[in-house]
Design brief:
The chain has about 300 residues and is α+β, with helices and mostly antiparallel strands. Helices cover about 35% and strands about 20% of the residues. It has one domain: Alpha-Beta Complex (Protein-Tyrosine Phosphatase, Chain A), CATH 3.90.190. The longest helix has 30 residues. It starts with a strand and ends with a helix. InterPro entries: Prot-tyrosine_phosphatase-like, PTP_cat, Tyr_Pase_AS, Tyr_Pase_cat, Tyr_Pase_dom.
């Protein structure tokens, strides 16, 4: 059993933790991307014949989502972003943030130097067994694991004057360029799956990139949409976008990021329900043609 050290003693790694994002957002309860499985042998056979590994009620929401956004298409989404959302600001221009006294897990989507510019500070040692003091924090990297396009660091943090340390997991993704786009949504989906699969979303999670609005906002909205879809809730993309902007100024600042959100969600749906493959592949082809620079 994995254990975590905290003030006052040892506890399990999954105890007393709440999920947060950089902007506080009320998400549906339950694990990230819950997918109801058909019950019984007959129901499972029916689902396989339909090409969907989801329940009938969920499939209705997926049908509607896929039809809506493959019909709107990449150019339709780009136009929607330019005309309705790019300049959107919160009505009162006030944003809510939450402070936590206990350390939490982190998702870092940046490199310290990008395009020759300093974008952030390396605040944990990169190699297992290394330790360093940052200000009033002693930081010891205990383990480093590779998950393809991102690394997982298990880090021990000991504040100055304290006798008990905290164990924090840092998921570090460096393959997403600043103000750019990944070639595929699979890496982002794998990052989200890592969080839910390790049950990290039982507690506070701090996510950041360089400015905390582009890559951060994109991943947050992908996760929210997937949670809603697989919890049989309607998805209003424009309103979800505005809700994030109400909490974090300039969140998701590029039209390419807006289109990429739908690409990633459609890609996940295609994995779960192969019957959507043709429509989703067409969207993905249009996305790459319109938004990924040729090399």
């Amino acid at each position: 059993m994995t254990t975590r050290v905290k003030r006052g003693g040892v506890r399990t790694a999954r105890a007393r933790r709440r999920r947060i994002t950089e902007a506080t957002y009320e998400e549906p309860e339950g694990p990230s991307v819950p997918v109801p499985e058909p019950k019984g042998k007959r129901a499972a056979t029916t689902a396989r014949k339909a090409g969907a590994n989801v329940g009938a009620e969920v499939e209705k929401h997926l049908d509607n989502f896929v039809e809506t956004f493959t019909t709107l298409g990449v150019e339709g989404l780009r136009k929607q972003f330019k005309e309705e959302l790019a300049a959107y600001r919160a009505p009162d221009d006030k944003y809510k943030f939450t402070a936590y006294t206990e350390l939490c897990d982190e998702m870092a989507i940046f490199q310290c130097i990008e395009d020759g510019k300093i974008k952030g500070t390396q605040y944990w040692p990169l190699d297992a067994g290394q330790y360093q003091t940052y200000g009033k924090m002693f930081v010891n990297t205990k383990k480093v694991e590779s998950e393809g396009k991102f690394l997982i660091y298990t880090v021990e943090v000991l504040p100055e004057g304290c006798s008990n340390s905290n164990i924090v997991k840092v998921l570090h993704m460096t393959s997403w360029p600043d103000r750019g786009l990944p070639m595929s949504g699979r890496h982002v989906l794998r990052l989200i799956r890592q969080v839910s699969g390790d049950r990290l979303d039982n507690g506070p999670i701090v996510m950041h990139c360089s400015a905390g609005i582009g890559r951060t906002g994109t991943i947050i909205l992908i996760d929210i949409i997937l949670r809603k879809l697989f919890s049989c809730q309607e998805v209003n993309l424009v309103e979800l976008f505005k809700t994030l902007r109400n909490q974090r100024a300039s969140c998701i600042q590029l039209e390419g990021q807006y289109v990429f959100i739908i690409l990633s969600v459609l890609d996940y749906i295609k994995i779960k329900c192969p019957k959507y493959k043709e429509k989703v592949n067409k969207y993905m082809e249009d996305f790459r043609t319109a938004l990924i620079p040729s090399t």
